[in-house]
Design a protein that fits this description.
Transmembrane segments: 12-30
Number of domains: 2
Largest sheet: 10 strands, mixed
Organism: Caloramator quimbayensis
Active site: 162, 190
Shape: elongated
CATH class of the largest domain: Mainly Beta
Distance between the termini: 104 Å
Oligomer: single chain
Strand content: 25-35%
CATH topology of the largest domain: L,D-transpeptidase catalytic domain-like
Protein name: L,D-transpeptidase catalytic domain
CATH superfamily of the largest domain: L,D-transpeptidase catalytic domain-like
Structural class: alpha+beta
InterPro entries: LD-transpeptidase, LD_TPept_cat_dom, Transpep_catalytic_dom
Length: 224
Amino acid sequence: MISKICRQTIRSSKVIYILALIMMIFFYNSKEVLAESENKDNTSIESKNESTEDNSQSFYIMKKLSMDSDVIITSEGLESAPYKIMVSIADQKVYILKIEDDDIKLEKTMICSTGKDKTPTPTGTFKLPPDNSRNVGKWYYFSEFKVYAQYYRRIYKGFLFHSVLFSKPDPKALISSSVKNLGNKASHGCIRLSVEDAKWMYENIKGGTTVEIVSYSLKDINKM
């Protein structure tokens, strides 16, 4: 009888020992999994922070034009193209901006003619469409007005950058009144430039460039 009780006690002890061992293994593994999970979370947070830091520094520069001005110029749009174009209807000027040494530099200023009050140039931010014969070329014919322009670059829908006007596709057939009107609202919505400036635009500005057209003055941009 005693021997039977002893055997049962030994068996019970073994069962308890095995259960205790299983619980210890389970507890140890749970601890490792938890630690691993915490490490992953920390790594995720760190990489997210690194990503945020990188994004905050990548090609986004803000520059206030002057202490008296509320106008802020940013490098938005310069990520995918070397230039950003700002057009001021108030100034009747086109400003070409470029990033240099982590700063926004004024590369070029062009006098222009935007749309008349009855046929205004649209304001807003636009991405120039892809380079193809519909969007960029050496001569453009305005059939409605029976005039030509050199070095056109489409901005948006029917609105273009282009040169002053010609009566036919010949550099000698310049319409002098369109040259005299530079610096004044004179077009049907397009942005007219001198032949020299339109040619520079044609040769240097590519599809994907950001164009921002504003109604207010950017005269302080010359201080950049």
